[in-house]
Each structure stands twice: as structure tokens, then as C-alpha cells.
């Protein structure tokens, strides 16, 4: 029985070898780019010996030291700071971005002129298309201490003294939240607009006949009908709450050390450990901590998504 | 009827204000790049400078060699990366869309699993630098981003399954067409909209990528335009210090630093702004299908 199944499988492989051949480049790529690094997470439990290179050493070389790297990591305040920052920022981003994006999408949907609607969409999507490096330049043009728009134009108008933005951690939760909103709201708005446009017009026509106001139409028809999309988008975002937008936290504060208490997140911490401090042990421990917790959260959110809508779940 | 007009005006006002907020930093950037350095130092970055000047662009024109090289590298990695990425993801998606594919379910799961768990920065970095020795090669700017997101493979697979009738493939198969012929003559031509959409997403990702350059490239001669911008954000004199082939004869004091910095950023965004209006349709579609699967 088993043997005939095996023979059947072999026949199928030979018969469809072309299909397999076509899949190979992509699969080989996933092995290199994803699966080898997955196996490589074991280095978080090892003492790296820099003289030993190559694949074999990455996977099997180096001395095992157990959970030492993790002990060091969690003994410092860093672990708490970066976890708190990552979760608070992402949590805030999820709620604020969703609320603003839905509000904008609702307003945009009310615009009658198709031309103007397209124009507004193009403009609010613009920030989404540029790289975080450019966003760093734009932020600098606003916040530059000597010449920036804030210090030279806005604050004098309000009679406030110039602020040394890049060395005052207290302002950065607001700045980063604003920049994130500015960059991403256009994208989210487009998603929600697509959901709103899909709502059957008859609901609104019936509501108008019954004398419903615009506000009632929005709260009683639009929002309830796009609720599935909202739930799924938010769940997907919650699944990724342990991963932050590295560019936002690295480029916009100009990698300033003074701002670390309010701008350091897991991703910047891992990057700095690896690239500037050369502390691979600590860095890989923080990285694995992120991957492991991230994995659990993604599974959890996927499970919740699947309970609501099978089609939207990843698996 | 009157309340309707009032409502419309109100909605337009809200959207106009938001659009202006999104556009404002770009305008400021643009104006500052054309401002006279003296007036910047005196009045700060202003929308209405005392006097305009082309000095910043004249200065950058003097540094043409490093700029042109960085631009060339960006164009090269964007073109090669987008085409290769599209090809290998659509080939894999096609195989996984066919019921005849051996181990189809297992392999599909391997694709999905990359979305759930990843090794993180450190092992990835070690694999690329110590196993494949990609540090300081152009491949380091292309390879890590090829399948930017395994989600694209799932999207293409769903598209193949949903919009290309199995009967079409079957009849071609019976007529003796090879898998490759079916893929290149039937599947690809029928899938142009989805491929254009995903291609657009890949193009933007490659054009905007600075992260791979940040970690894998230390030789300034291999910098893409984004990496050059990244270095100049913290060190505006970078262009003339690093033996990039630019002219360093001009003294630092003469360099209109503020304007040059903003002019560099303008040069970095301009191509995206120029192609954006023509590809907006594909882009918007890509964003929507990318967010809500299938």
C-alpha cells in the first residue's frame, strides 16, 4: 500500500517535473532568505567566535552558552524600555491611524466631484510613497534647531522660545506619532474607502427616504458595514505589534543618542547591537525575543481573523 | 438642497486642509532648495525666501560623477530587482496554483510560514555576509528584497486560480503545450493587470530601499541614491569628503549647505513624483489587494 503510494508520487513528480522546475528558483530563494536565517536563530544561545565563518559554523559551530545572552538582556533596563516603547507606539498608531483614516475615508466618499476626489486621494497618498530617508529630511526641515520651520516661523508667532528638538526626548512621542500618521493615513484611507465604496447604495437611499441625517447614515450604515474590514485590519496590525517601522525610529530622530529613552524600539536596539556596538550576543537575543513573541501574536491574531472570516486568514 | 451645498463645501474644506498638510513639507523642501543661503541663515526655512538662488543645484552639478553613479545604481537595482522578483514569484505562484503540483500543500505552507516567523536581522545578516559573502556587492542591494513580501506570491496564486479557467489550461495541456508554453503564452498575458500592480509595488520598494545599503554596503562607490541621501542627512559634506569622484576644490565655506541638503532630497523624490500620476491606478489597486487578500 505504502509502496504503491510512493510509486504514484514518484510518477507524479516525473510527469510534472516542469512545474517543479518552475517553482525551484522561488523555493531556493525562500530557503536562502528565510529558512537559513530561521535555523540561524540558535546563535542567540551561543558565544560567537568571529574567526569561524561559513554556513556550517553558523548552524553548528560556536560554543553553546544557554540563556546567558537573554539573562544579560533582561537584567538591563533596556529590555523593558524597548518593549514598552514598541508596544505603546504601535498600539497608539493602530488606534489613531484607524480612527483618522476611517474619518477621512468617510469624508472623501462624500465628495461629489470625481476629479477632486481623485486629486485629494493622490495628495494624501503622497507621503506613503517616499522613503523614510526623505521623511528624515522633511522632518529636519521642520525641526532644524537653527533654521527649521518650527523654531523660526511657528514658535516665534506663538511667542514660544526655540526648542532644541533633537535633544529633548519628551517631544518625540508626539513627533513620531504625527509623522507616522502623516505617512500612513493615506494608505489606510484608500483601504477603507474601497470598503465604503463597496456598500450597496440602496441602504442610503432607504435611509434618506426615512429621513436619516448624514450623521445617522454614517454611524448607522457606513461604520457597521465596514466593521469587518476594520476588525481584520486592526487584528492584522495587532499581530505585528512587536515589529516596528525601523525607518521611522531610526531616520526621523536622526539616530540621536539623547532621544533614546523615547525613540528606542526593539528593531533599533537589534540594529545598533549588531552594526554599531558589535554586541551580537545581546542583539541576537533581542531579535529572537522579538521573533518568538511576534510569532505567538501573529498566530493569535490569525486565529481570531479566521474565526471572523476564513478567506482573510493567512492559513 | 441648501444644506447639501453647505455640506459639500465643508467636506471640500476638510479634504483641502488635509491635502495641504500632506503637501506642505514637500513644498517647503522644494522652496528651500531654491533659496539663497544667506536668506536661509537669516530667516530660517521659509516658504517666501528673500531671494532665490540656483547655487545649490549648481553645486550638485559640480558633483555630477558621484550623483550620476548613485542614480545609475538605483536604476539598475530597481530594474533588475523588479523583473527578477516578478519572474520568480509568478513562476512559484503558477506552480502552487496547479492541483497537479506534487507537494503543493506543503510547499504553500512553507511560503505562508515565512509570513509568520522570521529569523530576524542578526541571522539574516550573518547568512548574507558570512555564508554568501554579499557584503559590498550590488547583489546585496537586490537579493534581500526580491520577494519583498511572500504575500505577493499568495496574491498572484489566488489571481491565477480565480481568473484563469482551469479548462483553458487543460485544453492547452491536451494539445501538447508544455508547462512553460502555458505559463508564458497563456497565463502571463492574461495576468498583466496583477503583474503590473505587483511590479509597481516592487519598483517603489527598490527605489526607496536604504536599509540593505545601510547594513551591507560600506563602500561609498556602491551607494544607491537613498544611501547617499542617508549619509548626507547626518553629514552634509559627505559628497565631497569621500573620494567619490566629486570635485572637492571648492572650499567648504562656500557651500550652500542648507540649500544643498534640500536639493539632494528633491533629486531623490523627483522620479517618484514624476511617474506617480501615470501609475496611480495600479498603485491604488495594489494597496487594496495587498491589504485585503485576494
TrEMBL record, chain A:
<protein>
    <submittedName>
        <fullName>Binding-protein-dependent transport systems inner membrane component</fullName>
    </submittedName>
</protein>
<keyword id="KW-0812">Transmembrane</keyword>
<keyword id="KW-1133">Transmembrane helix</keyword>
<keyword id="KW-0813">Transport</keyword>
<feature type="transmembrane region" description="Helical">
    <location>
        <begin position="287"/>
        <end position="305"/>
    </location>
</feature>
<feature type="transmembrane region" description="Helical">
    <location>
        <begin position="221"/>
        <end position="243"/>
    </location>
</feature>
<dbReference type="InterPro" id="IPR051393">
    <property type="entry name" value="ABC_transporter_permease"/>
</dbReference>
<dbReference type="InterPro" id="IPR035906">
    <property type="entry name" value="MetI-like_sf"/>
</dbReference>
<dbReference type="InterPro" id="IPR000515">
    <property type="entry name" value="MetI-like"/>
</dbReference>
<feature type="transmembrane region" description="Helical">
    <location>
        <begin position="87"/>
        <end position="108"/>
    </location>
</feature>
<feature type="domain" description="ABC transmembrane type-1">
    <location>
        <begin position="83"/>
        <end position="301"/>
    </location>
</feature>
<feature type="transmembrane region" description="Helical">
    <location>
        <begin position="181"/>
        <end position="200"/>
    </location>
</feature>
<feature type="transmembrane region" description="Helical">
    <location>
        <begin position="20"/>
        <end position="45"/>
    </location>
</feature>
<feature type="transmembrane region" description="Helical">
    <location>
        <begin position="120"/>
        <end position="140"/>
    </location>
</feature>
<comment type="similarity">
    <text>Belongs to the binding-protein-dependent transport system permease family.</text>
</comment>
<dbReference type="Pfam" id="PF00528">
    <property type="entry name" value="BPD_transp_1"/>
</dbReference>
<keyword id="KW-1003">Cell membrane</keyword>
<keyword id="KW-0472">Membrane</keyword>
Automatic annotation (TrEMBL), chain B:
<dbReference type="Pfam" id="PF00528">
    <property type="entry name" value="BPD_transp_1"/>
</dbReference>
<keyword id="KW-0762">Sugar transport</keyword>
<comment type="similarity">
    <text>Belongs to the binding-protein-dependent transport system permease family.</text>
</comment>
<protein>
    <submittedName>
        <fullName>ABC-type sugar transport system, permease component</fullName>
    </submittedName>
</protein>
<feature type="transmembrane region" description="Helical">
    <location>
        <begin position="259"/>
        <end position="279"/>
    </location>
</feature>
<dbReference type="GO" id="GO:0005886">
    <property type="term" value="C:plasma membrane"/>
</dbReference>
<feature type="transmembrane region" description="Helical">
    <location>
        <begin position="106"/>
        <end position="126"/>
    </location>
</feature>
<dbReference type="InterPro" id="IPR000515">
    <property type="entry name" value="MetI-like"/>
</dbReference>
<keyword id="KW-1003">Cell membrane</keyword>
<feature type="domain" description="ABC transmembrane type-1">
    <location>
        <begin position="71"/>
        <end position="279"/>
    </location>
</feature>
<feature type="transmembrane region" description="Helical">
    <location>
        <begin position="70"/>
        <end position="94"/>
    </location>
</feature>
<feature type="transmembrane region" description="Helical">
    <location>
        <begin position="186"/>
        <end position="207"/>
    </location>
</feature>
<dbReference type="InterPro" id="IPR035906">
    <property type="entry name" value="MetI-like_sf"/>
</dbReference>
<keyword id="KW-0812">Transmembrane</keyword>
<keyword id="KW-0813">Transport</keyword>
<feature type="transmembrane region" description="Helical">
    <location>
        <begin position="12"/>
        <end position="34"/>
    </location>
</feature>
<keyword id="KW-0472">Membrane</keyword>
<feature type="transmembrane region" description="Helical">
    <location>
        <begin position="138"/>
        <end position="160"/>
    </location>
</feature>
<keyword id="KW-1133">Transmembrane helix</keyword>
<dbReference type="GO" id="GO:0055085">
    <property type="term" value="P:transmembrane transport"/>
</dbReference>
Amino acid at each position: 500500500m505504502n509502496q504503491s503510494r510512493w510509486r504514484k508520487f514518484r510518477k507524479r513528480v516525473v510527469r510534472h517535473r516542469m512545474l517543479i522546475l518552475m517553482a525551484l528558483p522561488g523555493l531556493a530563494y525562500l530557503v536562502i532568505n528565510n529558512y537559513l536565517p530561521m535555523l540561524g536563530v540558535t546563535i542567540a544561545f551561543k558565544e560567537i567566535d568571529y574567526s569561524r565563518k561559513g554556513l556550517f559554523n553558523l548552524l553548528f559551530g560556536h560554543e553553546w552558552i544557554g540563556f546567558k545572552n537573554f539573562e544579560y538582556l533582561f537584567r538591563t533596563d533596556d529590555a523593558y524600555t524597548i518593549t514598552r516603547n514598541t508596544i505603546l507606539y504601535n498600539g497608539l498608531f493602530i488606534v489613531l491611524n484607524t480612527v483618522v483614516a476611517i474619518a477621512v475615508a468617510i469624508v472623501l466618499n462624500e465628495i461629489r466631484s470625481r476629479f477632486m476626489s481623485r486629486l485629494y486621494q493622490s495628495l494624501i497618498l503622497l507621503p506613503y510613497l517616499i522613503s523614510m530617508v526623505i521623511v528624515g529630511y522633511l522632518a529636519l526641515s521642520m525641526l532644524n534647531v537653527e533654521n527649521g520651520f518650527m523654531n523660526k516661523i511657528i514658535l516665534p508667532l506663538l511667542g514660544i522660545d526655540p526648542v532644541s528638538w533633537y535633544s529633548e526626548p519628551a517631544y518625540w512621542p508626539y513627533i513620531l506619532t504625527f509623522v507616522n500618521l502623516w505617512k500612513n493615513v493615506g494608505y489606510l484611507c484608500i483601504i477603507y474607502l474601497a470598503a465604503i465604496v463597496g456598500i450597496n447604495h440602496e441602504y442610503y437611499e432607504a435611509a434618506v427616504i426615512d429621513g436619516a441625517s448624514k450623521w445617522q447614515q454614517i454611524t448607522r450604515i457606513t461604520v457597521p458595514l465596514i466593521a469587518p474590514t476594520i476588525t481584520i485590519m486592526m487584528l492584522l496590525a495587532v499581530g505585528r505589534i512587536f515589529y516596528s517601522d525601523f525607518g521611522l525610529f531610526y531616520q526621523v530622530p536622526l539616530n540621536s543618542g539623547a532621544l533614546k529613552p523615547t525613540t528606542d524600539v526593539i528593531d533599533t536596539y537589534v540594529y545598533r547591537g549588531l552594526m554599531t556596538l558589535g554586541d551580537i550576543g545581546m542583539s541576537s537575543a533581542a531579535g529572537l525575543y522579538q521573533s518568538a513573541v511576534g510569532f505567538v501574536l501573529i498566530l493569535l491574531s490569525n486565529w481570531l481573523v479566521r474565526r471572523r472570516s476564513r478567506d482573510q486568514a493567512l492559513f | 438642497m441648501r444644506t447639501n451645498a453647505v455640506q459639500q463645501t465643508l467636506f471640500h474644506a476638510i479634504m483641502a486642509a488635509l491635502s495641504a498638510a500632506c503637501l506642505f513639507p514637500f513644498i517647503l523642501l522644494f522652496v528651500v532648495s531654491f533659496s539663497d543661503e544667506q536668506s536661509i541663515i537669516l530667516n530660517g526655512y521659509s516658504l517666501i525666501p528673500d531671494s532665490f538662488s540656483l547655487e545649490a543645484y549648481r553645486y550638485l552639478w559640480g558633483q555630477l560623477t558621484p550623483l550620476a553613479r548613485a542614480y545609475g545604481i538605483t536604476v539598475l537595482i530597481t530594474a533588475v530587482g523588479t523583473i527578477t522578483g516578478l519572474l520568480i514569484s509568478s513562476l512559484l505562484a503558477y506552480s502552487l496554483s496547479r492541483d497537479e503540483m506534487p507537494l503543493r500543500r506543503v510547499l504553500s505552507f512553507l511560503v505562508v510560514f515565512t509570513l509568520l516567523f522570521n529569523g530576524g536581522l542578526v541571522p539574516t545578516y550573518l547568512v548574507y555576509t558570512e555564508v554568501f559573502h554579499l557584503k559590498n556587492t550590488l547583489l546585496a542591494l537586490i537579493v534581500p528584497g526580491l520577494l519583498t513580501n511572500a504575500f505577493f506570491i499568495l496574491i498572484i496564486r489566488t489571481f491565477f486560480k480565480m481568473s484563469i479557467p482551469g479548462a483553458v489550461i487543460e485544453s492547452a495541456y491536451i494539445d501538447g503545450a508544455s508547462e512553460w508554453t502555458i505559463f508564458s503564452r497563456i497565463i502571463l498575458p492574461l495576468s498583466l493587470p496583477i503583474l503590473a500592480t505587483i511590479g509597481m509595488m516592487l519598483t517603489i520598494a527598490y527605489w526607496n530601499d536604504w536599509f540593505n545599503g545601510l547594513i551591507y554596503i560600506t563602500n561609498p562607490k556602491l551607494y544607491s541614491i537613498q544611501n547617499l541621501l542617508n549619509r548626507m542627512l547626518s553629514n552634509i559634506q559627505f559628497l565631497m569628503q569621500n573620494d567619490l569622484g566629486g570635485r572637492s576644490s571648492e572650499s567648504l565655506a562656500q557651500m550652500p549647505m542648507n540649500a544643498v541638503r534640500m536639493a539632494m532630497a528633491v533629486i531623490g523624490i523627483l522620479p517618484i513624483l514624476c511617474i506617480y500620476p501615470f501609475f496611480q491606478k495600479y498603485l491604488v489597486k495594489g494597496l487594496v489587494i495587498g491589504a485585503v487578500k485576494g
